[in-house]
Amino acid sequence: MGFKIAIDGPAGAGKSTIARRVAQRTGAIYVDTGAMYRAMALFLTRNGISADDAASIAVKCKKADISIRYEDGEQIVLLNGENVNAFLRTEEVSQMASKSSAVPEVRAHLLDLQKNLAEAYDVVMDGRDIGTVILPDAQVKIFLTASAEKRARRRCDELIQKGENVDYEEVLSEIRERDARDSGRETAPLTQAPDAVLVDSSDLSIEEVESAICDIVAKRKQSEKKEA
Predict the structure, then answer these.
(1) Residue 200 and residue 144: Cα distance in Å, rounded?
(2) Is 226 within a domain?
(3) 43, 53 Cβ separation under 8 angstroms
(4) SS3 assignment, position 58
(5) In a domain, 228, yes or no
(6) For residue 215, what is the domain's CATH number?
(7) What DSSP line would sit under 180-191, residue for residue?
(8) Residue 194 falls inside a structural domain
(9) CA angle at residue 126 from 210 to 198, to 5 degrees?
């Protein structure tokens, strides 16, 4: 059984960035759940399924075998054995992923695949419900957050670097609305697991957050060795 690290938190908290760095530092596999949903969307579009045909999506999704591996430090997303990295960022795939991810059967199938990865390898996963739903038995659970204002400022900085014009107040409003939706939805709402460690990155650098989480991981591994 692999060593599991679950990182949950609200949008804009830096979960993916931190998860990748923690995975690299600890030698674990970063399971990019978003990429898995995109691979599923690619599978559905290739099979001529309409994004609005939830019934067909529910049936066809079970035929998709999706996994992740690393080659020379690069994440490779495999769809039925094929490396599909080059096909995951098209607008067609994005539109399908947005709708197909809401189909319960898609979520259930990918959940099984994600759990299989976690049983076979040491993994780091990030999301909204990793520690509460997907990996409730994770040895380390982190709830990574930051103030809405700090997350909005970071998002604005990212967009400005890409040459986009942004309005801070508008971005802040969108983040607050997203927080309300994520926390209030019926299926797998955003919530901190009772045994998760809260890490507030509002006043921390990326390096400081990474070090703090890696210290937690190291202590947990030492504890497991003593218990063994």
Answers:
(1) 6
(2) no
(3) no
(4) helix
(5) no
(6) 3.40.50.300
(7) HHHHH-SSS---
(8) yes
(9) 60
* pTM for this model (two decimals): 0.81
Query: How close are the terminal C-alpha atoms of the chain, in Å?
Result: 14
The two structure tokens encoding residue 58: 């529910």
Q: At residue 83, what is the residue type?
A: N
The distance from CA 175 to its chain's CA centroid, rounded to whole angstroms, is: 17
Number of domains in the chain: 1
Burial zone of 20 (CB within 10 Å; 0-12 exposed, 13-18 middle, 19+ buried) = middle
d(CA 196, CA 152): 24
DSSP for 73-131, please give it.
TEEEEEETTEE-GGGTTSHHHHHHHHHHTTSHHHHHHHHHHHHHHHHHS-EEEEESSII
Q: pLDDT tens digits, residue range 155-186?
A: 899 889 989 888 999 999 999 998 888 888 77
Residues spanned by the domain of 136: 4-221
> Tokens 């996963």 — which residue?
125
How far apart are the C-alpha atoms of 17 and 126, rounded to whole Å? Answer: 10
Residue the block writes with tokens 């908290």: 13
Question: d(Cα 13, Cα 224) in Å, to the nearest integer?
Answer: 29
pLDDT of residue 94: 86
